[in-house]
Write the structure tokens for this entry.
Amino acid sequence: MDTSVTRKRYPEEDKKADSGDSTSELLKQERADWSERFNSQAKFGERFWLVVIISCTFLYAAYNAHYHTFPSPSNTDSPFLEVNARQFVEKVCKNGTRNVGSHANEVHVVGAIVDRIREISELAKPIHRIETDIQQPTGCYTCGVVGTYCYTNVKNILVKLSPATKESSATILVNCHQDTAISSPGASDDMVSCATMLETLRVLSRADVPLRHSILFIFNGAEETGLQAAHGFITQHPWAKELKAFVNLEAAGAGGREMVFQTGPEYPWLIAAYAQSVRYPSASVVGQEIFQSGVIPSDTDFRIYRDYGHIPGIDIAYAYNGYIYHTKYDLPEYIPEGCIQRGGENLLALLTTLGNSDRLEEPGDLKMGKMVFFDVMGFFMIYYPHRIGEVVNSLVVVAVLLNLFRRLKSFRQSGGNAGLYVKLVGASYAMHAAALLSIIGCNLALGLLVSYVRPMMWYTNNWLTFPIYILPAIAIWILVHQRGKQLCKTVFQLVSIWDIEAIYFDSALLFWTILLAALTMGGVASAYICMLLVIFPLILRQLVSDMLNIRMHNSPILYLTLTAGALLLPSLHIMQLSHSLNNLFLPLTGRMGSAVFPDILVSLISVLPFLLISNYLAGFLHISKDLTGLAAKFLSISSLFILIGCFTNLGFPYSANPASPSAQRHIFTHFWRELYAYDGTLEKEDHGLLYIPFDYNEHRYLDNIPELKSMQLQTVDKDLAYGGFPIYYSKITKLKRYHVGKLAKPLMYARVNVTHRKEQLANNIVRHHLTCSGNHFHGNIYLSVVEGGELIGWSFTPGTPIPTKIPKEIKRSHYFIYTSSAMSPHPANNFWLDIQVGEEADLDKHWLDIGFAAHYLDGPESTTPELTATLAKFPNWTVPLGWVATYQHYRF
């Protein structure tokens, strides 16, 4: 605490005025003197703050350039060759979409992978043994409240690389999936991972020294249908018993840096092996906690191997350019050059390390709970067990409290008193809180405003988030603190202007320390961010500046340098995280459904880095000249860009630019529906076009398409199983509403054949035996039990069935079953359901609603002339997706 310039009291202040007028005049004179003294000593004006903002923008741009730097595939000393992997991706993707059951997925891609494995095996060195198998499992499993998934004869291509001279007692699994989402060529998701695995197999099979442990490569043929093939392998194949760890390769975008976003459970040596072996690390426990929170509407095979195989693993995924994820644009040309080289070198290094690890055979005594892990700008990794992180975080909290006590003691020794110091810190802490709450509140309001006038105007031009959301946040921050400077004048005029900055820094430390303590107590691994925000300022700004007696008034350049150094590393890491969050969430808003306000989400994500750093800069704001004009300029610029975005093509959300498409997604189902009464008579038959919007704009810009203009908004029908329509996706809570329009009845589509009989098991329990069959590869069974009844068992999975998550306004329990088959002709699906009712209830009345949907996703059956004509009317900045489905609903 700088005491040399602490403000001295005027002698008149120690005298008691006889009248209120004299006291008032004295206070006015005192404040005028302080304001004059403050303005004469204030160091920083608009130019200083513009330099700060421009410097931060430059750092972010520099990191963005660094992020897109990849190793050259043509100049590398690695035996892994991108050209081989890329050629395989291009070869497979020429066959188009690979849906489960399609000829492309069950024949073409299987043949291509098997042929490549055969080529690799023929050139392998004799010290290696290569075994292959093609598995076609059948089974069912329940994925919590998401639904139940049943599969028939889906394919897994298995390749095991082992030492030829000895049997290995441990095996590492490496997984990719060869199938694709509907109408997507799947170059990134996930053929690039399969090609990387094949090239890695080639390199390992030609090594001069074999690995100690076996590597099992799985090319699974049913991931997009609910992780089915992975479940079939891990629960049914004999090689699954040998597994000690796994690596899952995925994608939610096209290239970029592949990131470790899930690891564990409990084994720290896996992330340690990754950190110690890979050349280009990229990992974040923040990504893990976001993904496992359920915010992202996706899942990976990691869940299956972890939950059903009970083995630890690492989940690695590409996430850049999520605009093309699950669209027709997922083509090889959108994978940046060098991206596969980077991922391949990392995978090769990781498997080599794991394949020779002593810990793979006996990992049982190495459980240490979850891990805290993150990379530093892609150069190296920091990782440690979460329980150690809790200890470190607690020590940092204690250190900050001791430092504040030391600062309080220094303040008292300089002639102040403890009460005044606490009052000063409390006032500045309140200002921090007021500024943060004001920024959040104003950005939420701004997000609502933009959602109303032109939603998602930043979707293609991501840089618009800066003028639309970040500049107003800075302006609000300035204005709140400018106002606070006036409100807190009575308190802060008792100390020097330089002490004001130091006290604000103290309160900023306290602010993040309290949050650090709260997150640590809550078991949040991402609390390390707050730890970084505390420990560097504590050491560099507080302790070093005090030790060397560096103060703003006597060494301003050195003082500012220390402050910048204290904030540099936390700021760079926050920028790195912000870059990752923007890469993930901005494209993700295009497939989060129409019930989510994307501008509110993006308004908060965009301003997050500023929220985390601004507290430490607030003290400098309080020793700056009047910045109201700068805030007004920022608000004017923001308003100008919002107006430009609203009334020009700059703010149009979508783009058909071939170099970087960001199209709007639409899903249509041309359906034919039959609803049967309890007595078996046909109650209703209709047909039409079911439209499920994938983003907030829905068909806002498509009113010129007659089929959309005539559509009627539908809400979930509470009296029919799962809403009464052929819903392909289980997450109806994210969709919440859909539209139905008129379209001619689809012809040449076979209905699902259903047979039913009842069997009474007890006075209040009835078993429904059902059989359904048809010529479809993909289908749904929807169940809904009438209030007063309960589904207590079924033949799909053991135990009590788990209801699927549905909108809260629906009182009944609903169950979603997804079925897929990779064989033709399709076998009949035989199953039973046990319904329990009250003791006095009538078992002969209607207790069960059940719907059957058949989806035709491939071949000539997947479309109709009417559907094709409708989709042809969509502009090139959209990716309309459509197929044909039938739906039959029964009451039993």
Summary: The radius of gyration is 32 Å. The chain has a mean pLDDT of 88.
